[in-house]
């Protein structure tokens, strides 16, 4: 371990032939998997060394050639279990930090992100290879990605924070991949997202999850997902409940989801009915909502915009006329 660590930290540039030979040995001896599988059993200093070694191996790119680093290519085609074992490191608070640090580097690669999203193997079973991924097949909800919900909600503060960091990177870094994934797994994903994360007893988890939800919905790549989401009356009700939460930051993050419903030019009948039935209450509530945020001009403008949109609602719901170019435009508040 000390030899490998020393080489990667000190001789990466000065001894490229030796480093390449060492890298080949690591791959040949399946050391990446052994380190990932055993990291939770190692003492503290050894875990730190393992974190450093594996991170360097993932970055290692001889001659800075095109394409993915060779370790990434090896993992996705031959040994995806390396990544799945690193994810399972969140099950032990002693290994969570080291595994999160390695995964933060790994999930910069879209193919690594795809492995985590689409793997449905059980422990000790072969993980999914990149070429075997079927993006159109809905998930069962038993794969490694779905365990992040539990790690975030039920883990210790440190484990929850580290797991959420990787969870957020997975959902925001690789936009086309995630848009396809969310479309294929819409009901399962948002069902768990609301039930576990939005309704979490943890203030930090709840607030961060609401904020992330807003980011997902407002990302243009997720347009189809967003339009489906804001058609739901149940989602609107859940969001309106957030506006009345006792904690101001939960209210604030909830507002940024609520505004997507109101700004939608083609509101579903269910959404219209809820807004119409609550029109008078909303028109009284919104002007005073978080009124102490006097230095936030954009927030003030957005509130005024939503008030105008609610005032303009018809007396009865009407069938929406959907257009491929129509989308909620909360930026209109600044006009």
Describe the structure.
The protein is mostly helical. It has 2 domains: 157 residues, no CATH class; 130 residues, Leucine-rich Repeat Variant (Alpha Horseshoe), CATH 1.25.10.10. The protein is built from 19 helices and no strands. It is elongated, with a radius of gyration of 23 Å.
Low-confidence stretches: 329-335
Average residue pLDDT:
91
Topology pattern, helix = H, strand = E: HHHHHHHHHHHHHHHHHHH
Task: Bin the helical content.
Answer: 55-70%
Form type: elongated
Distance between the termini: 61 Å
Count of individual beta strands: 0
> What does the radius of gyration come to?
23 Å
| Strand residue content | under 5%
Structural class: mainly alpha
Number of helices: 19
Main β-sheet: number of strands, strand sense, barrel status? none
Number of domains: 2
Keywords:
elongated, 65% helix, 335 residues, single chain, Leucine-rich Repeat Variant, mainly alpha, 19 helices
In short:
With 335 residues, the protein is an all-alpha fold. The protein has 19 helices and no strands.
Strands, helices and their partners?
Layout: H1 2-10, H2 16-28, H3 31-38, H4 44-59, H5 70-77, H6 81-88, H7 93-106, H8 110-118, H9 144-154, H10 157-172, H11 175-184, H12 186-198, H13 203-218, H14 223-229, H15 233-243, H16 248-263, H17 269-277, H18 279-288, H19 297-311
Helix pairs in contact: 1-4, 3-6, 4-7, 7-10, 9-10, 9-12, 10-13, 13-16, 15-16, 18-19
């Amino acid at each position: 371990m000390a030899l490998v660590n020393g080489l990667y930290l000190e001789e990466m540039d000065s001894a490229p032939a030796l480093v390449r030979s060492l890298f080949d040995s690591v791959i040949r001896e399946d050391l990446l998997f052994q380190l990932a599988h055993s990291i939770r059993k190692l003492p503290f200093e050894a875990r730190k060394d393992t974190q450093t070694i594996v991170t360097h191996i993932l970055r290692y790119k001889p001659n800075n050639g095109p394409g993915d680093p060779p370790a990434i290519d090896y993992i996705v085609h031959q040994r995806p279990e390396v990544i799945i074992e690193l994810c399972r490191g969140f099950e032990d608070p002693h290994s969570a930090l080291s595994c999160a640090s390695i995964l933060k580097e790994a999930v910069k690669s879209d193919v690594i992100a795809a492995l985590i999203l689409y793997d449905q193997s059980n422990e000790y079973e072969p993980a999914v290879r990149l070429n075997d991924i079927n993006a159109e097949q809905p998930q069962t909800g038993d794969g490694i990605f779905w365990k992040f919900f539990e790690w975030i909600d039920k883990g210790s503060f440190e484990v929850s924070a580290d797991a959420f960091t990787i969870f957020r990177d997975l959902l925001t870094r690789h936009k086309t991949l995630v848009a396809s994934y969310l479309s294929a797994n819409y009901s399962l994903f948002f069902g768990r997202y609301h039930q576990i994360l939005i309704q979490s007893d943890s203030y930090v988890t709840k607030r961060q999850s609401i904020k992330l939800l807003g980011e997902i919905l407002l990302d243009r790549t997720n347009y189809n997902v967003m339009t489906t989401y804001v058609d739901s009356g149940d989602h609107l009700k859940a969001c309106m409940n957030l506006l009345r939460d006792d904690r101001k930051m939960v209210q604030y993050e909830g507002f940024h989801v609520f505004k997507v419903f109101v700004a939608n030019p083609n509101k579903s009948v269910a959404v219209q009915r809820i807004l119409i039935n609550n029109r008078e209450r909303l028109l009284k509530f919104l002007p005073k909502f978080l009124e102490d945020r006097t230095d936030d001009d954009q927030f003030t403008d957005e509130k005024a915009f939503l008030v105008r949109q609610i005032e303009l609602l018809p007396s009865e719901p009407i069938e929406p006329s959907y257009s491929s170019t129509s989308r909620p435009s909360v930026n209109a508040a600044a006009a």
